[in-house]
Design goal:
The protein contains five helices and eleven strands. The protein is α+β, with helices and mostly antiparallel strands. Strands 2-6-3-5-4-7 form a six-stranded mixed β-barrel.
Length: 246
């Protein structure tokens, strides 16, 4: 998994629409060209026609500011097991809608998800947390997965991009080190961790099939600090991943 962040870089990128029109390679960044000379007469008319063609031709393209946050990895999707339940921001999950779950991005963030194998892209809003599986970076709603053509594939390689402010990158983070369907096992794991760590919690979560007890070690003020903790756990042979808790 590759990520640009949590410290944002300013990336001056042309819009996906212009990339398609000029390069015919939507996922490839390129520099913009500046026109020289006065736009008058036939030149102005040609410019206007070109701009209108680009505008109408890209009516369905994802829109937004220049991304300063990127992440590459695997996307999955979730559906009936969560349909009708509350998402992390309190909304009712609609599996047929266009939304996504992410472990660390602020709720409400608009992201552009691009399939790296096909070039298809879609703009979605993050309203939930997940996927709670190591190696996966975003969980799409069933509706979003259909739009990207990845329902049958299940798991696909993607690029996730967003435009974030510096304050959006700060928050409260934890490392999830286990998830159990038996509460006693989760409590036992947490007690063992409390011998070394102070902020250890067991978080209960129910979907439409089963109840999970997630074990988390928290108290990290930013994602980078939590990521360092994940590396420390890995050195001890314990898998984990970063989750946002605010």
């Amino acid at each position: 998994m590759k990520r640009t962040g949590p410290q944002p870089r300013v990336l001056v990128l042309p819009s996906p629409c212009v990339l398609r029109a000029v390069l015919d390679t939507p996922s490839r960044p390129a520099g913009s060209a500046r026109a020289r000379g006065p736009w008058t007469g036939a030149g102005a008319a040609l410019a206007l026609v070109s701009l209108l063609a680009l505008s109408f031709g890209c009516a369905g393209a994802p829109r937004g500011g220049a991304p300063n946050w990127r992440e590459e990895g695997l996307a999955s999707w979730y559906g009936a097991d969560f349909h009708g339940r509350r998402t992390a921001n309190g909304e009712v999950y609609d599996m047929f809608g266009i939304s996504a779950a992410h472990k660390t991005l602020p709720l409400g963030t608009q992201v552009t998800v691009t399939r790296r194998d096909t070039g298809k892209r879609l703009r979605v809003r993050v309203n939930d947390r997940g996927p709670f599986v190591a190696g996966r970076i975003i969980d799409l709603s069933y509706g979003a997965a259909r739009r990207l053509g990845c329902v049958e594939d299940g798991v696909v390689p993607v690029l996730v991009e967003a435009e974030l402010s510096a304050t959006a990158l700060r928050g409260t983070f934890a490392v999830q080190v286990g998830a159990f369907t038996v509460e006693a096992n989760a409590r036992r794991r947490a007690e063992g961790l409390r011998k070394t760590y102070r902020n250890v919690r067991v978080v209960e979560f129910r979907d439409n099939r089963v109840t999970w007890w997630r074990v988390r070690v928290g108290g990290y003020g930013d994602e980078e600090e939590a990521a360092s903790a994940v590396a420390a756990f890995a050195e001890l042979g314990q898998a984990g991943f970063v989750v946002r808790e605010d």
